[in-house]
Amino acid sequence: MININLLSVSNLPKLNKLRKLELSDNRISGGLEVLAERTPNLTHLNLSGNKIKDINTLEPLKKLPNLHSLDLFNCEVTMLINYRESVFTLLPQLTYLDGFDADDQEAPDSDPEADGDGLEDEYENGEGEEEDDDEEEDDLDEEVIDDEEDEDDDLEGEEEEDGVDDEVRLSVIGEEDEEEDGEDDEEDEADDDLPRGEKRKRNLEDEGEEDPEDEEDDEDD
Fold this sequence. Notes:
rod-shaped; 5 helices; mainly alpha
């Protein structure tokens, strides 16, 4: 609520979870006890550019135990002697006053607790979940690759078996041919052992012809 001509914070609703409140460049001069009642978990309060003149005006802020950053730039109170020492004494829970600590060390540019530290953690957790999904996808890809390799191995095994079957089939055919050739050779050898006349007669019988000598014998009869 910056620069909206606020005179007080008496109408502020109860905001138990509010941590950071911007009230700079208004016309607030007191009534800060309302903040202790309605924003009990406040950690950052900016009252710079308001009409705060006395240290005692800040005393109600003692009831904000989590308050560790207070800004009072361009308020008349900052012109008082020992202003900083007095405020740190009044509000011992403070870490930073007007952007510097009690040892004049500058505050960091942003405070993670006030600027959404929880959101940052959720973002990091989200990244962790995405990495787990990638790992699961990688595992699935590896499983698919393994399955494809197993299928290739099975195909190779089947091809090898087919090759073996073909060799066995050819071998059996060759043996059958050799057996037939062997039988023919045995018959030829048997024919060679027969007398010439009987061999000729047998050949004629195989060819379905009669022996001329038999025909002459029939004619004589």
